[in-house]
Amino acid sequence: MFITFDASPPGDDVPGVLLGFIGARYAREWDDLPPAERRARALSSFADLFGPRALDATGYIDQRWGAEPWVAGGPTAAPGPGVVAPYASALTEPVGRILWAGTETASRWTGFLDGAVRAGERAALEARRLVDASASDTETTGDAA
Ligand SMILES: Cc1cc2nc3c(=O)[nH]c(=O)nc-3n(C[C@H](O)[C@H](O)[C@H](O)COP(=O)(O)OP(=O)(O)OC[C@H]3O[C@@H](n4cnc5c(N)ncnc54)[C@H](O)[C@@H]3O)c2cc1C
User: Fold this and answer.
1) Which structural domain range is residue 9 located in?
2) What's the pLDDT at 51?
3) Residues 96, 54: one domain?
4) Cα–Cα distance between 3 and 61 in angstroms, integer?
5) Of 64, 68, 70, 76, which is best to mutate to test ligand 1, by the most ligand atoms within 8 angstroms of its C-beta?
6) Ligand 1 atom with minimal separation from the 102 CA
7) Binning pLDDT at 50, 70 and 90, where does residue 1 land?
8) Cβ–Cβ < 8 Å for 135, 125
9) 3-state secondary structure at position 19
10) 15: CA distance to ligand 1 center in Å?
């Protein structure tokens, strides 16, 4: 597992749920394993990290995101050092009246839902400013076009 999450639902009387991603070369390696073998390896990884009770999981869901035709991988792109920084501003630069709001345009948590929300809020504020500026231009010039 290259990253794990406590995905337990809120409350006391609920099962504990662990979520883990298998990434990069491990994903390619594990992808071709029989599901039972992948399950055994995943639970063994959780046991190493969180203790032997993980081996007695009451449920197990295995999702191969790379095999999903409309997703083709996940959870996020991981460009190498120096790939994004020089060009990041180009991603957020408006093109005419088109504003960009995807998670890739976020200043923090790029590639995650948190970044998607931040980028959406930033783009909404930009849109608001453009609409306000356009309205005040119209008032000044009297041009309704
Ligand atoms: C397998 C996987 C697991 C993930 N796990 C996590 C996680 O645990 N935690 C986390 O924070 N993030 C996770 N992510 C990342 C997270 O899902 C994304 O960062 C987030 O959804 C990006 O939001 P977005 O609004 O930028 O883009 P998207 O959610 O991709 O939304 C873009 C939308 O635009 C639509 N669209 C595309 N082209 C057009 C077009 N031409 N016209 C109209 N609509 C169009 C698409 O259909 C889509 O609905 C995961 C992603 C994957 C793939």
Assistant:
1) 3-67
2) 96
3) no
4) 16
5) 76
6) 26
7) confident
8) no
9) strand
10) 28
